[in-house]
Amino acid sequence: MRAWATGVTVLATEAHGERHGMTASSFTSVSLEPPLVLVCAENNMRTLRLIQEAGVFAVSVLRAGQVEWSDRFAGRIPDAADRFAGIPVRAAITGAPILENALAYFDCQLETLYPTATHTIVIGRVVAAGRVEGEPLLYWNRGYRAMNNEQ
Asked: What is the C-alpha to C-alpha distance for residues 151 and 48, in angstroms, rounded to an integer?
C-alpha cells in the first residue's frame, strides 16, 4: 500500500469532555447527495470509541508544512499526551474539534460504522465544510511529500 499516494488528515471528536484525534490517510468522498465521507480507524483507537459515543467527528485535511501535527496525532511524538496542546482548534456545527490552520475541514454527523478485521469504516454525513488556499500534505512510500506541478 505504500505505493498509493494519499493526503493526510486528522480525525477528531469529543465526548463527555474528552477529546481525541488521530492521523488518518484512509479518507475519501462517498457521495455528493447527500454529502458523505468515509474514513477508516483502527478498532482499538480511543478516537473511534469517542466517535461512537458522541455520534459526531471532524476531519481536518493537513497542509504542506504540518508534518509535526501529523506525527503528533499519529502518536509519534510521545510528549504529546494532549495531542491538541498548542494547536488552535475551533468547532463548526457538531462541536467536534477542527484544526484551525488546516487546508480544509469536514464537520460530520456519524451515519454508520462498518467493522472489519482490524479497522472500522466510519461514514459521516457532512454538515459543514470549508477550505483555504494552499498545498496539501502528501504521504507516499513511508514519507511525506510535496506536490509537484509537473505532468
From this structure: 38
Vertex 68 angle, CA 132 and 72, to 5°: 110
Q: What class has domain 6-139?
A: mainly beta
Q: Is 17 left (phi over 0), alpha (psi -120 to 50) or beta?
A: left
Q: SS3 string of the chain?
A: CCCCCEECEEEEEEECCEEEEEEECCEEEEECCCCEEEEEEECCCHHHHHHHHHCEEEEEECECCCHHHHHHHCCCCCCCCCCCCCCCEECCCCCCCEECCCCEEEEEEEEEEEECCCEEEEEEEEEEEEECCCCECEEECCEEECCCCCC
44-58 pLDDT per residue, tens = 989 999 999 999 999
Give the integer Cα–Cα distance in Å for 88 and 132. 16
* Model pTM score: 0.93
Domain assignments of the chain as residue spans, ordered by start = 6-139
